[in-house]
Fold these 3 entries.
Entry 1:
Amino acid sequence: MQVQSPMGTKLFQQDIVQKISSPGNIGIVLRCWHDAEEVPPVVPHVDPLMRPLSYGEVGVTFISSGGQREILPQSDLHLVDRALHPGDYCKRSFDDVRAGVVTNIKVKGRISHAINGAQVEGWRFLQDLEDRADAEVGDYVAFDDWIGQIIEVFDESIIQVSSGQLVRLPEMGSRLTVGETGTNILSPQLSATQIGSLGHNGGKDVVLAVKHNTYAISWLAVNQALDIAITENKSRPKQFWSGEDLEKLTLVRGHSDLEMRVGDRVYLKDTTGLPFTEHGKQGDMTGVVQVRTFLVTETSTEVEVLWQDGTKESLNAVDVIPYLNPDEYDCWPGDHVVFKNEEEKRPAIVQSVNAAERTAYILFPDTGNIELASLLELDAHGNSDHDANNPQAESFGVRRGDFVFIHALGTTNRLENPRVPRIGEIEPWVRENPFSHGELSGWRKELQDIGCSIATRRTSDHLQEKLMQRPITGDGKLSWCGEVTGLNLNGTVEVTHPDGTAATYSLERLTRLHDGIEQLEDDVWDAGSEDYHSYSDDDDWDMDTEGQSQIPLDDYWDISSTGGIRGDDDANVEDLEDDDEADLMEVDQALWSPEAEIPIPDTNESNIPDLPRFKSSNQEADPHLSEVSTPMIEYNEDDVKWNRFEILASAPPDHAFYSSPPSQPSKIFLGRISREYRVLRSSLPDSILVRAYEDRTDLLRCLIIGPDNTPYQDAPFVIDWMLDSNFPHSPPIAHFLSWTNGNGRVNPNLYEEGKVCLSILGTWSGDKNEIWSAARSSLLQAFVSIQGLVLVKEPWFCEPAYDKLRGTEEGIVNSRLYSEKAYVLSRGFVRRALEIPLGGLEAEITQLYRTGRRLQKVIDDAERLIQKSKDNAEIAPEDIDLAVPRLSAGGIITLERTLAKLRRLL
């Protein structure tokens, strides 16, 4: 395995490369080390591209070698071209903080004959190409004010078998392309006897032509410019299209879909003097077939880039790299954003961005003023965790390349600017199971029957299908939809219609189309995540409590002097009935013996990095749970004392799960919770406080103080917990109290809507040693995991896909930006905890930040960091290991706003 260098990978998906040792061998990168791989591929690998990649390796399919696939070191390859599209983000290099957005592309290509490989001299351009006759899967089509999308096709292919005979092969799906050769082209559809009857002698078959005879179309959305009374009466068109009906459809393609890519089969407007091949003979079923199809063997792409600072540049695509992991605050001129702090929220349009200093000039359309703002106070996308379940509020504005509907003049999309709705749900039939009892079923079977019928009739009826219509330049028939091609600094949007004309519209007249193929791809990702459950407030965590009432803890429990728990029948929890014991066997019966203890993770300071400076007093622990029984601890600078664990009389109304109905606690539950409490009483780290409640044994609240030399240092992190009726068989449910004002997550694992993403909580996948186990796991372990695994020095790397970027230029830059954001936002947590009393923790917050003067420390530390950042923009060598060594100008602007409020709290 190669040693990782800090340079980052050179090659990315869809890059066009050639072997250095064989310059004519052109290939396409299908996998690269940079790709996020959720699950390691299964071994052994049938596909040579599917083994895990080492650093610096890429998986390539070579066009000029009959589709040969192999994994190679990127040092063996030369980058020929880079496939970028309008709307893609790019950079000059990994460590360049300035990024660009591709606004346009121009592609030129070299071609050869698809069958005999004869090269055609010179470059060919888009204007040299005939528009391809068939629509492909993913293409949009229009009919009767509806926009639909091709979901599947049925093909008829003409194959020349090794004997020279031509065969018409009907089959579903776009499996074959012109010029493809192989010994098994016919085998998926024909039996060995049928193949033998064709005179097949074991040589290679050649694909001469491919035609789609039937299309399955999902109709996504209707013309938004129509009156609602009209649209309500417009029924969806039929799902299968073929024959003469095809000319009723209009094929709608975006600009980038028309451009050449390596591996494409293309047709030229003028083929005079160019190579062609003839196959078959007169009188045969297929007649003589002339092939004038060409294969794109090499491309060169020129991109137009709009940089964040507003400058524009045309350059070769290989001179930039894809920007795959943009910062959540990244934005570009013309983008619609929302400027927000706790005093106001205002829509704005970005004019220019200083990426290094994280500032932007923004136009407020309500006043016409242009002002300087911190990027940390701009919501650039509108897709915060709070809006995750609202498809209409998915994002702000539109992006180049988006397909949009235009509302009639004088009407709007009915959303508050800059939100733009998204419509277009694929029809339910698309998601039907493709097979039943090993055979095609549902709509796929129907598509196959239609396609085979047409293929059979073609030989006797000489069928001649019509072609789909193409938009006629300037005819205006589809002026109600189009592709976003420009974002203007005044907030208007340039849309290019299918007929080639362009017009400018206000944002509120646009609605985005939700691509159906993207929806299906999302289904695949969701299906791949079914091995774990993502818990959130919306999940069904009812405790089967119908008809049950709330029972105070001390009405049910008799606390003995040894800390044991007796039920209302004075039976020890270990003296359970047989059916209870059977339930316990599901986990580990030994866990429930009187001597059993809850697992305790090692919480010394060598395992939890940089804990805040607290010290424990020598107070003896009271063995009774019903009384304060935890050792007191002191803030060593000011003799602040507090209780790490305490049981309060009642749960506070501001608890995230307060309104959830409690369940009748079982003896098993009470036995386990007793042991959990004993562990928390004796083993909590000094910087974690936990509160339990007599009237709600299913609820807890914990306060975690951010560890030293992390972006979270000295900040309070409050998490509410609920234990469902199945605890400890199921993990505790966490809700993080996010106080970011909707300005983004403070940590990749801590969502704004409250989700805590962690393996032990069942909200992220993990191996058997990481997930919750009733026998091995404990509440203490969950609390400590958050402090030790989440509130870390470099939180950007908590995102699983980013961990392998440690040490790379990209990882260093992005981690530094994230840590600055985390530091600035978490300073606001201090203010929020002091301004709004937190149920059950009011005294502790006051002791820590006021009595113990931790608030003064937070202010002093922040002021020193601001001054150091102003004095020296570069990171000093002695500060290189600090979690936040310096701040950008944008970080300073936002932090100073928070500091002004913190000073008033003194």
Entry 2:
Amino acid sequence: MLRLSKTINKHRANIRGLSILKTKTSNDTNFEVGQVVEGFIVKEVRPVTDFQLTALRLEHQKSGADYLHIDRNDTNNVFSVAFRTTPNQSNGLPHILEHTTLCGSKKFPCRDPFFKMLNRSMANFMNAMTAPDYTFYPFCTENQSDYYNLMSVYLDAVFNPMLRESDFRQEGWRLEHKDVDDKSSPIEIKGVVYNEMKGVYSDNQQIYNEHFLNYILPSNTYGINSGGDPNVIPSLTHSDLVAFHHRYYHPSNSRFYSYGNFNLENHLRFLNDTFLKDCSADLSIKDETKVPNEKRWATSKRAHVACREDPMVPKDKQSSLSIGTLWSDITNTQETFELAILSRLLLNGPNAKFYKSLIEPNIGTDFSAATGFTDQTRDTFFAVGLQGLNKSDFERVESIYEDTIKSVIKEGFDNRDIDNILHSVELSMRHQTSNFGLQLLYGTLPIWNHDGNILDSMCVSEKIDEFKKKISNKPNYLQSLVDKYLLNNNHKLVMTMSPENNFEELRKENEEKLLKEKLAPLSNADKENIYQQGLELRRQQDAIQDVTCLPSLSINDLKKTTDSVPLIRENINNTPVFIFPQPTNQVTYFRSLINTSHLSDDLKTLIPLFCNVVTRMGTKSMDFRQFDQLVRKSTGGLQVSQSIIDSPRNLFNMKESVILNSHCLDKNVDEMFDLWKQIFTQVTFEDENRFKTLIQEEASSLANSISGSGHMYAMLCATAGINPIDAQRETYGGLQYISTMKKIAQIDDLKPIMKKLEKISEIILNKNTMKCSLTIVDNNSTAVKGLESFLNTISGNWDLSNEYNKIDKQDDNVKCFHHVLPFSVNYCAKALPGVHYAHKDFAPLKVLCKYMSSKYLLPTVREKNGAYGSGASLSMSGSIQMFSYRDPKPIETFEAFDDACNWVNNKKITIEELNEAKLAIFQGIDHPVAPMSKGNALFFNDMDQQIRQEHRNQIMNVKIDDLLNVANLYFSNTNFAKALIGPANNSINSGTNWNVTNHEDL
């Protein structure tokens, strides 16, 4: 399960102004304040016109439980239950409890009903998450029967969990022999959360963020690690866990949330009758868990954090520095909204004050990890700094910080930048997504958790009007906020981080010391008990579970046909145009696909870099700052990305493309296409300093991404060994590309690369290989005329005989790759050749992968071996992939991968299990699609309704024998590839088939 990020990334939008699905509310708006409904009293009813919803606050009369319902005509309904959980130690108690509650309950006593419900539901989202001061359990589904099935499982899990000691040992931590069956093998510390947090502590950015939070808010619960410090987790006892649950998972400490168009009264009746009607209130719990405001400091403080060396970053550029100040109380929603705007003015984009002063001089590689406005804690805080620093530049950065603040107070902000931010809020309020209910929960829960007025927080227009009034009455209002919260704020933290040569050795020493301390007092009887407990846990993990207690949808609950998407095909200026009429809420969406297969290989390797910088370099008529200001004024941004698209009908056929993507309010269509015209006709690659800045940012971002997405990089590395298309993807987006960017970032003279990017623009920024798409309301002729004007302006003539090009199959040699990186856990992957999307075996292979994920890999690799995650999938490129995430036992994991075919043959698959796997597949197929994305499958992937319907029918018709046949045909293939990302491993590194890359040598 996920832990919430404690800081807001500089690219992340403010959730309280996020995208919506603007529709009419449903029928739950006739409740009145003071009315009692199914044991709940209505406390407040408020229409929120910004989002076309009605919010209702209720309170359960007997227990005091809090309830927020969002009445909105959205079919993707959401439910969540949350508890304020404020730990006082770094033993990971709330985090481990979150895991353990989902391991079985009184009504559903089978092991891990949460994971089993993943295959018995049509939920498009299921999870449980631990934040620094609360834990919550959300899900989303469009099916009403499914909704109540999941409610019953979730609520029984949190209110009536089994909390067995064996589950605590599996999910939290335990002492166990390395080989469970061998009493003579060494005893180790194991556990899912224990290994998860070891993985977290392998990431320098996570270490930095965690410590910054601990140091700037040290007095209360934020001063410890709610997820758990691996050195402290083994101090937690099962009795501590049970006592914490008994006290804090109480209805009086609960916050219930529902969203969508299902009937509220039914929700309340179900909740009251099943769980709450016999509960009594204990109001002391809320007082006990309440987080007070941090006492403001009289003087600023400093802190230093050690980290591991990062072989993907130059050795003299591995330090970070951040300066943070404590800001508003999160419950002051107006001030928090205004401070979020101030943060964006200071940080976002090339016109932002700190971007100019800190990023553009190229002192470091990018903003530091803790940079941003954090509004997830009781007291919000703001931080800014740099990573990729030399320690000798620390003082310089601090000096620049002070000078920047003073200049802001003196000069103020450009009104155009303020207007652009407000425009982005308006656009985001109209921009439609399929998960608005979930995003609204994320945005309101931190305020709600601290008893703030959550209904006020949703009224964005009122906050904008109030903000405009303030800056109108007091032109220097924003400067006064800078003076108050930045210049004259004694609650200031300056934190630095630098690598230590022996960091990993010290970590291992501490781990070994901890283990010795645990083993030292053990008697022979204690050790025998550890051995027996290990055997017993294994027996429980291997036991066949009776899942008949769990509710489930059936295949008959699924729709039989694929949804059709209205389409108008046009040919404008000899260019293919797809027009998708949709209810876009006065927003126009433009996409374009430009084929790049005709580029030379040396230019193709630079396409990802080209995409990253082409809209951020400026044009011949305006510099990058001026251009960025126009982009923010009129659009939601101009995005350019590279994509390699597989043919759904032919293996090893791919479409190499660059994708253009933008959206704007309907009234700004002409301005949006004018911006694209400038990119196509005037883009320039002449500002070397700007180019260097963008390269440093990209290289730094890529290097930081490995530990959090190691399984994705491992899968790509493995599939590259067996599939020529994935080999291309690895070159353009895998570890190979990260190494390439690392080298480019260290080049002094970048002019030759800039010349190549200019050459790419000359070749592809035209109509020669372009096709376009518009998603608009039915009668929006302005958007079509705007696109026509754009196409009339740019050069070229459509000349593309075939979008796809065939690539030669690779040899059948076994390939195994180990990328040695200084992590304390591993990421494993194995790849096997599969088939293309339209092949008759694609559907049974897809079902088999889903079946193996839940019935084999999850219990074997996660539950027994302690990895945080594991699974199998089938990619559109025709590659079968098995993977593990934050894995302490790579040898055992690869053995499990290799034994997959034998396991299937020895497993008696039931009809019920087959249908569960199919349901899990249809979760992905039938997930809600926002209007802006409808038609993407056709436009990008050439998947029309017929081929999607055929695929649907094939999945429906998969039989048990089909799974056995494809298992023996494909999973027994001796042509495979493996990849491992993680620390040096003597057992693997000594293997003759393994190619070892030590990234310290790159």
Entry 3:
Amino acid sequence: MQHNIFTTMRSLKMMEGCKGTQVYALNQSIDGGGGGVGEKFLQNLLSKNSIRSRSNSNFQAVQSKDEVNSVVLAEAFASYGLPKTDQLEPQIEFCLKPMNFVETLGDVHRRMEGCAQFDKSRMYLEQCAIFRGLPDPKLFRRCLMSARLHAVDVHSKVVLSAWLRFERREDELIGVSAMDCCGRSMECPGSALVAGYNPESATDPCMCDRGMRKDEDTEIYMDEECSTSLSRGDEEDEDFDMSFCIGDDEIRCRRFNIASLSRPFEAMLYGSFIDSRREKINFSKNEISAKGMKAAEMFSRTKSVDSFDPDIVLELLSLANKFCCDGMKSVCDAYLASLVFDMDTAMLLFEYGLEGNAYLLVAACLQVFLRELPNSMHNPNVSRFFCSSEGKDRLAYIGHASFLLYYFLSQSAMEDDLKSNTTVMLLERMGECASEGWQKQLAFHQLGCVMLERKEYKDAQKWFEAAVEAGHVYSLVGIARSKYKRGHMYKAYKLMNSLVSDYTPSGWMYQERSMYCQGKEKTMDLSTATELDPTLSYPYKYRAVSMAEENRLGRAIAEINRILGFKISPDCLELRAWFLIVLEDYEGALRDVRALLTLNPRYMMFHGKLQGEHLVEILSHNVQPCSQADCWMQLYDRWSSVDDIGSLAVVHHMLANDPGKSLLRFRQSLLLLRLNSHKAAMRSLREARNQATSEHERLVYEGWILYDTGYREEAIAKAEESISIQRSFEAFFLKAYVLSETSPDSESSLYVIQLLEEALRCPSDGLRKGQALSNLASVYVDVDKLDNAIDCYTNALNIKHTRAHQGLARVYHLKDQRKLAYDEMTKLIEKAKYNASAYEKRSEYCDREMAKSDLGMATKLDPLRTYPYRYRAAVLMDDHKETEAIAELTKAISFKPDLQVLHLRAAFHDSMGDLTSAIRDCEAALCLDSRHADTLELYQKVQQRAKEQLPT
């Protein structure tokens, strides 16, 4: 019965607009003018449902509503095209992907340790490029901060400061302008314009008042000295010994002062030229006004331009360039740079800066453009300049064209519109600026990826080949894909087959090769890909769609559930929603569509042909409507059963009913963080901040944003400011949470307990109070107050905070009550929908065989959890199976280079006497975290042993 609809969809005869050689082809087009047949059909469904709601009794006399909706959805599927295995493709990664990630990390760390201080910023940028492909965005952001910390020149500081701000997306915060200072000198627009190397001061609070400037700063005004100087009478003429004549005006000057401005002026006024003997010099042909020359005379005495109109300063800048007046040029440059605060001013002064070779002024304008990304690139004048080779050359002449600049611009452009001409041209400029091998690899590989997306396969192959020639072996995947798209399937297969043969096999190699073979060979390659790297989504999707094509929908859903159990992505959620619609499980399908729209609000369903929100509206007609109160009850149920996807869907529904509810946006961000969707979580948190109706609430959300981006002290300050306005649960909770992460000592723990107790006295809902009780219990455990902890965990469980079972189990274990601990974790396993962590934790409270069973289940449910690999490796080492132990850790490292796993493998290598491998793993671990104390200690010990073994 469950497959009837699927069969119906495969045999439906649609109207002529849907006919073609492949009705279900993935890329079937839709008529542009009035929308495709499927689009029109779905729109008609909405209007029909509206009519049915008004005349339901008449409609039911003809046909049941459910039957009609089923047929409508089936026809919509046929119109848009069902997913087909021969149309699925794995995504080619856009980042640098070394063939041996561990060796690459180790090499970067060694070069970092050995390079000069002034080169560290460049090394950290390389590290950024390597970390860009890792799932944890904090690693990339931390490297970016380190690059800024060690930056020396103004250009690098401007670009890196803007990039740090871009990563935090402050432009999305209402009331925050591009040039606002966040309080840290590292991101301060004023500090970025100060040259010099001082990494210690970069973390200091910024005292900048840049955002407090008034419009009168740019107005013309004269100080007392200026006024008296320009209105002197004949009584002071004896101070002057020469004049410059410009038209009818005569500007009296002191010869010595003017000569001191530059060597050319000195030669003109004191050299062997005729002018050096003249008292009056005709200066009319030097393109400076009388007013400008008067200002030059004043500058020769005061060495300041602060009292001049900006137009006059621009004249002085031109004069300084013409006569090589370096001091005057520097002062004019700095003054004009200080006037740049917004896009209008930057656009006005940018060309003057380029013409006048004013390094700081161009830097200031550049800073505004970069801090306004991506919107600034929508200005045709800005985009045309940065995209053109001429613009790049003009920037290079003044010292502001760099790989760093175009790397940032191109990443912003790719996020904004991957296939645009702007993206292509910026990547081309990035390639032109590339000087080191890794820079060329990255630029050429990303150009290949963009061209592939644009379906310009010949150009894509050319750029991928350039990347391979530069040393990026992974780009062979792009070459193979380009050949395949151009009809050379066998050549693509041969290329990937040679890659598998020549290098240590990786999951992505088998995944790519599977595209170019059929039958059992394809199935085996996909199985091997999953075995080597279970995080690759393509094999799961292919197997699921293959099962669906064979009408095994239950198996298809089970297959896609395997990856959704530990890695949430919109494409996998969409696929499951597809299958659920076929099974007429519209409630489940609606859940998945709502969840994926939380991850990506602009997601287009049905192969990019239908807005996700539109499908939500359609599916909503097929499920029981629920009120906001019903939603709250559902949220409690989903939350207590640790169903994060279900919780996301409920919150999405609640926000549709009440879109301005900041508390719901905040709850959404917490769920997204639990699902490792950091970018979406930060977006929800920024929306929560923007929608906050009170100042104290807004401060809390700003505090969480600061904490999540590494500014812990500032987060605490926001919490304290919020508390000073109004005592609230969230403000106390934020302060307690950040303090517990920052200061783990016993004194701080007691203070955290007080803060959490204050939080619990404030009004809040049970979901948040359950979390606070659990956190409070955890701190009680840290200070050895186990009975208090039991009380807190029990209270948390009473309000359905199911995760408290894990904390309670820990307390029982500390009390040496292992049976009770085991039972608590069993309860959590029974209640939780996603329970890999519960199996992992329960393994600590049972014997070795049961522990191995639980950890095996944890790995099956979530292969990204590294503790099971470490445990199994440790057991193997205890059994003197060193090779198997190393292999167990290597398996995890191959798809997740985790710090703890690398450290453990280094220790194993050390114990086996393999000092070279131990050093390599230590260096890779230290590249991930250079301050990891245990690894540093091991590294020093192994290095010392290696030195002792060297022949004397």
